[in-house]
Design goal:
301 residues; alpha/beta; eight-stranded parallel barrel; 12% strand; lyase
Length: 301
């Protein structure tokens, strides 16, 4: 069977957009973060993305972000890559966070498009280039216009791909046509950032996924990619479709994925803790529904 040309996966294929555990008092729970990270790696994650959207980066301090990288690196060692979310709406602040993450032991940086100010494409490009020049770490560009208000247009992505330290993209653009245009002309490693598109993007040459739902079911997402790699495309499709009820309840039912992931992790007795305001916790009925979908997917009773 002929498979599509596929870029290398510089940080592994199955990455989890890990929640940031907090204590019940709302403080950073480094012990919980280490325990969760160890579980995720043991259950099949090649890499962990810290302080991204799911990791509540807007409400953690610079010091907490660095401390989280250090703690997780201590826990997982060289068994998994660590990609640190450092993106902000301020180029100078983003550079500072990038250098701090590098010092703390990250393997790569996740850099989101500057938000709120809605810069034009030439400013978006300059922002990413300044960060790539400031640190020795490779960058994953985070294209999520639904949250930032600004797309990294395919033409901009093609130009950015020429920088030796811009190596990947976390894609939440919902534009498979644009993605394929970039895949065909660059060696950028595209990671699906939308859990319902994991198999679709992988099948057209993506590198893997950065999954929020993997906080609770990492094995299931690894199984999708492994089935496809083995040439069992029908099985890969079956596994992707089987995960959709949980994906939908966690990611498309009106609550942020951070809220649903922490609610379900807490019900399962795994490290999570509360969300920080302005986010609010999921109610009991919502968590009951999440647990039901989780049990259906995992075959547990």
């Amino acid at each position: 069977m002929t498979t599509p040309a596929r870029a290398s996966a510089p940080f592994g294929r199955v990455l989890c957009a890990m929640v940031t555990p907090f204590t019940e008092a709302g403080d950073l729970d480094l012990d919980g973060a280490q325990a969760l990270a160890e579980r995720l790696v043991a259950e099949g994650c090649d890499g962990l993305v810290l302080s991204g959207t799911t990791g509540e980066s807007p409400t953690t301090t610079d010091g907490e972000k660095a401390a989280l990288v250090r703690a997780v690196r201590e826990a997982v060692g060289a068994r998994a890559s660590i990609v640190a979310g450092v993106g902000t709406s301020d180029t100078r602040h983003t550079v500072e966070l990038a250098l701090a993450a590098e010092k703390a032991g990250a393997d790569g940086l996740l850099v989101v498009t500057p938000y709120y100010s809605r810069p034009p494409q030439e400013a978006v490009e300059a922002h990413f280039l300044e960060i790539a020049d400031a640190s020795a770490l490779p960058l994953v560009l985070y294209d999520i216009p639904g949250r930032t208000g600004t797309r990294i247009e395919p033409a901009t992505m093609l130009r950015l791909a020429g920088h030796p330290r811009i190596v990947g993209v976390k894609d939440c653009s919902y534009d498979l046509l644009g993605v394929q245009k970039v895949l065909a002309r660059t060696e950028l490693a595209y990671y699906a950032g939308c859990d319902e598109q994991v198999l679709a993007l992988y099948a057209i040459g993506g590198a893997g996924c950065v999954s929020t739902v993997a906080n609770v079911v990492p094995r299931q997402f690894r199984a999708i990619l492994e089935a496809f790699d083995a040439g069992s495309t029908a099985e890969a499709a079956r596994l992707q479709q089987r995960a959709i009820p949980l994906v939908e309840s966690m990611m498309a039912a009106g609550l942020p994925g951070t809220v649903t992931a922490k609610g379900l992790l807490g019900r399962l007795g795994l490290p999570s803790g509360p969300v920080r305001p302005p986010l609010r916790p999921a109610d009991g009925e919502t968590v009951d529904g999440l647990l039901s979908d989780y049990l259906d997917l995992t075959g547990q009773e």
